[in-house]
Task: structure prediction
Amino acid sequence: MRLIAPLARRLLRLIAVLGIVALAAFGLMQASPVDPVDAYLGPQLAQVSPEQRALIAERWGADQPAAQQFGLWLGNLLRGELGWSRVYNAPVSEVIGTRFLASLPLLASAWLGATLFGFILGVVAGTREDGWADRWIRRYAYTLASTPTFWLAILALLLFSVALGWTPVCCAGPVGMTRDEVGLASRLHHLLLPALTLSLLGVAQITLHTRARMLELMRSDVALHAFAQGASRREVAWRHGARHACLPALTLAFASLGELFGGSILVEQVFAYPGLGRATVEAGLRSDIPLLLAIALFTALFVSAGNALADGLYRLIDPRLREVRT
Amino acid sequence: MAAATLVAPLAFGATAAHAEPSLVLAIGGEPSEGFDPLLGWGHYGHPLFQSTLLSRDADLATQPELARDWTLSDDRLRWTLTLRDDATFSDGTPLTAKDVAFTFNAAARAGGRADLSVLASADALDDHRVQLSLTEPRITFVDTLYTLGIVPDADRDNGYHDGYGRAPLGSGPYRLVEWQEGEQLIVERNPYYHGDTPPFQRLVFQFTGEDTTLASANAGRLQLAAIPPALAAQPPAGMRRVAMRSVDNRGILFPMQPARGEVSDSGAPIGNDVTADPAIRHAVNLAIDRELLVEVALHGFGQPAYGPADGLPWSDAAERVDDGDLQAAAERLDAAGWQLQGDGLRRRDGQAAGFRLTYPAGDTTRQLLAESVAELLRPLGIAVEPTGRHWDEIRREALHQDAILFGWGSHSPQEIYYLYHSQHAGQDYYNSGLYANPTVDAHLEAAQSAASFDASLPHWRAAQWDGEAGYGVRGDAAWAWLVNLEHLYFVDDCLDLGELGIAPHGHGWPITANLLEWQWQCDG
Result:
């Protein structure tokens, strides 16, 4: 019984967040100067009659007042219908489903890589303050933190794909081969550079926060006690420090899901990787309201779920949080 | 899994080295909606998966395709076409008049890029004859006969459905193997194709950005790549540069009416006192050095433009200006009372000879053109103010009161009708300068109600200049057309592209219009 109330509260909050996200996204789309019919026709503008323009707007419902469009969309949503994508001429749910599946390996490997790598670097740096390892890791983290993702992606592409030829220049698979013909090794080969670039995005933050928490612990009474008993710095760091420091790392890792998603838009653009990120760009440029709204909701849900998961994991890791309930 | 990885590339390599090689093309233009002709797929060039009723050769002369015989009724309202009887879809089922009627009726309602708003109805008279009825005489309806790919009737088992764009079934030379959205399209020969066997067994269209395309071309992985002019200086080893002529034009639209304080339906102000004077428009046309513009703005890859459809049959071949002639331009302005003042600017009754030249911000080619035009007109005493604006701002503010740098160009004279007929004056982007000349209107209408497409051609040309009036430079000079772009491709030395026609606006798919004439010239 005790569980139900907080769960319900969380759920209500989630619904409110989703509602606000939908409304804000819709408002921004309405304020956007992009005329969806112009964007759709492009240079064919002067070959299509005024009657045909009207027919296109009618097919999309773009000729109706904004409030009515939103109401219609909301009604469909409540019935479980996400609508029809204008850009892809397919059900929005299908577009998001296939695109997210394509993005998932990229997002998952980048996220896992960033969290693990960032955490290990943070612990190593925090073990001995101002040691050579700490100084180099800090420099590395500051450099990364101030580097724009797309720039890093272009540099990586130029170096590894064009100059050295180690990795492919684009896409999720080799040219001229159907999906069935592409093996796992080839898939991973194509995933390598985008995932690596994207994972670097999250490393710096996690490293610096983990390091700060480690420093705090290494100066604490707990550490002093352990040193007095003859433990080495490394033993103290891994036995006591790591467990303390993994809480901020976890929070950051889950909170950075949104950032990760944003970064994937840029990385997918640079590497021509056909995921949800590229669909988002298309939807925005061509004013595909149903698709963009659904992606906004999906992202909000994704980030909220990440935060909820982080809360749950705290209780598992830190016994002090569990005792509060009893 | 590992074994499959190793085997697959070898198998593909074997196909590539076969006597009938596969081609890898990077020409962009992925249709995000899929390959659905009812929504406009195939509008540029060949629909690939589907076939059309008629086709056009490099000179745009009409050739039979699915239809072997066609007539237009005397009242110009009914097309009757007889189909060939050996056409089948790529699953082996026959294509009949019912499929054609369905395609036209459905496309008219679909609300996509294919514009069939003039179609009243399409009816199958029997298995091989179809009748298309129009609501008014419009000869440019013939465009849809060239471009609309025929899809199977929805009533059939294998018929048209919502997901057709991702699983296209047609009677064209190729059929779909796999479309990896955002990456590539793989197609293979359709064994049931009624025409000559296509020369290539397999085609791969790679959908990559400019940089990636160039990197792939340099790595020797492409046989054909669309390349922007700025990157086209040095073709990679084993490839040559091919420049395809086009009517992908850029020109200056002039507001034709003086400013009387009127506004259009959308609230945009109408009229410009300077460009409303024919002397100004003629002087601009005379003074601009178009060859120079090609060098400066297009890296030399283009031709001077004198009309909206240079080189196409509905454009007057005599439409030329001996341009770059400041002397003649100055005389024209002097005669009209625009006097050169001490500050180097011409004035008439206190009105300075100056206007804003608006271009869409972010389009560097148009920006270069606008700035070069301003420089070229300065010595003449005309002050042009190049102004970059967003399309939205152009629509709200500039559309009917600024000179605007537009780019059009299509394989249909319908565009000329939209740009110059007074019926479309002030309607969005169509005739946004509000040009109106009853003689031109009459020629355009005569063209639309001609007995055949060939018979309409003299009327289209007369609208440009009939000896006394016209929209062209000798007449009202409603535009100052500047340049036609050349579309640039890197092409494998072994690939012979045959005779390329003149491409419309749009770099990429149009080059595939004569795909079936391409040949591989090397062995092995």
User: Anything to note?
Assistant: Chain B touches chain A through 69 residues (CB under 8 Å). The longest helix of chain B spans residues 2-16. Residues 1-19 of chain B have pLDDT under 50 and may be disordered. Residues 279 and 333 of chain B are 6 Å apart (CA to CA).
